[in-house]
Amino acid sequence: MLLEKKVAVIHGGGGSIGGAAARVFAREGARLFLAGRSLPRLEAAASAARAEGADVSIAVVDAMDQAAVDRHVDEVVDAAGRIDIALNAVGFDHVQGLPIAETSLDDYLHPVVGYLQTNFVTAKAVSRRMIAEGSGVILTISTPGARLTGRGLIGNAAQSAALEGFSRALAGELGPDGVRVVCVRPHAMSDALATSYTREMFGRTADANGVSMDQFVSGLAAMTLLGRLPVLDELAEYLAFAASDRAGSMTGAIANLSAGALVD
Ligand SMILES: NC(=O)c1ccc[n+]([C@@H]2O[C@H](COP(=O)([O-])OP(=O)(O)OC[C@H]3O[C@@H](n4cnc5c(N)ncnc54)[C@H](OP(=O)(O)O)[C@@H]3O)[C@@H](O)[C@H]2O)c1
């Protein structure tokens, strides 16, 4: 198994990506600590991961709050001895699809500040424990907005490009301590729409463009080389590989999981 005896913390562990990653990490032998905002979603993710045979603990932790995340990380290390893998899969609805003239400063800054804040908070909390161990992997999640252009993308583009820059710089800082940082950049996942905040967000963009949700999603798929969007399991499998010792030489990387919407 890829992650046998590894201890993994997933912030946003009850979300679409957090839950999918939890299932695959569990199947690959990891001991899991899922932290998130809503207990019912955490419980559902934990029960799916336990069905794969994993030992899973859950905790309600605000991933924007440094003191709360630090406390939880300390509890995880007290219980499991160390943290090998930390995935920040926190996500929240924000404004996309509007021209700059119709976007307020607050709406523009909301994803920029929010995603940069939670990734700083969780990386700061886990890195001090990983540095002490001389090993660990921090996983961040960006979006194709980091490199796309077009109307309605400014907030998403700024937060995604900044998060990729943060991940690269953090990899440079933590590399000498044996800690890897890998950022994944998946396109919108078709099966995440059932549970993710993206349903509301893309729904508003589709409405603003006078198309149905199906038409909007088909339009995104048509812009990929594969003619389809990625699915949650593809991202979760990649995350498990990136977190494993088999990817031991991978750090400072931005993994392109855009199904070919972007080429490198
Ligand atoms: N879905 C996609 O297609 C896609 C594509 C590319 C990148 N991404 C990125 O992937 C990440 C996760 O997306 P997702 O689709 O998995 O979203 P999701 O299904 O909506 O899940 C996000 C999770 O984050 C939790 N959360 C939000 N604020 C929190 C906070 N302050 N503290 C702790 N937990 C918090 C949510 O809690 P609640 O359960 O209380 O809502 C939810 O469980 C985002 O960064 C997003 O940009 C997603």
Automatic annotation (TrEMBL):
InterPro entries in UniProt: NAD(P)-bd_dom_sf, SDR_fam
Task: Could you list this entry's UniProt keywords, alphabetically sorted.
Answer: Oxidoreductase
Q: Does the keyword rRNA-binding apply?
A: no
According to the UniProt entry, where is the signal peptide? none
Alphabetically, the GO molecular function entries are:
3-oxoacyl-[acyl-carrier-protein] reductase (NADPH) activity
- Report whether Oxidoreductase shows up as a keyword of the record: yes
Taxonomically, the superkingdom here is Bacteria
Q: Which Pfam families does the protein's record reference?
A: adh_short_C2
Its EC number(s): 1.1.1.100
The entry's family comment says: Belongs to the short-chain dehydrogenases/reductases (SDR) family.
List the protein's name.
3-oxoacyl-[acyl-carrier protein] reductase
Q: Which organism is it from?
A: Agromyces ramosus
